[in-house]
Structure to design on (150 residues):
């Protein structure tokens, strides 16, 4: 007589698989029963005039008509102003290390500090000098260039 092809491990795996399937079916039925108990839930979700989600429709009297032509998509065009833009700014040297060749200039109008390198200098500067300068985009922000003593 031939031996059965099913080993003990195969029988155990089959039992585990069936048990898992049974547990899954029980959980599914429990979820269905719970859903019937609680009710259906929110059928529709509405957004009120404040932007909050509600289950009641918004009041039509609070509805605002918006003209589709007035919505600007993209960057608005720059309006030309009458006064010409002066790129030259004035400031005071708050720190300058001549041995290392860099420092910082404090803008008198905005009180912002801008990095200044020796390569951007026109005149020799030192701390507390009043200077005029222009701004240029650098690697870590705006840099003061074309720095002159006033």
């Amino acid at each position: 007589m031939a031996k059965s092809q099913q080993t003990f491990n195969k029988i155990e795996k089959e039992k585990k698989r069936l048990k898992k399937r049974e547990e899954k079916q029980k959980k599914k039925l429990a979820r269905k029963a719970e859903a019937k108990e609680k009710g259906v839930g929110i059928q529709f979700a509405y957004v009120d005039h404040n932007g909050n989600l509600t289950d009641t429709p918004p009041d039509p009297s609070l509805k605002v008509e918006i003209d589709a032509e007035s919505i600007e998509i993209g960057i608005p065009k720059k309006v030309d102003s009458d006064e010409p833009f002066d790129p030259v700014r004035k400031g005071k040297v708050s720190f300058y290390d001549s041995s290392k060749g860099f420092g910082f200039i404090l803008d008198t109008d905005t009180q912002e500090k801008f990095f200044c390198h020796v390569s951007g200098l026109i005149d020799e500067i030192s701390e507390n000098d009043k200077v005029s300068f222009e701004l240029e985009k650098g690697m870590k922000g705006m840099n003061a260039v074309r720095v002159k003593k006033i």
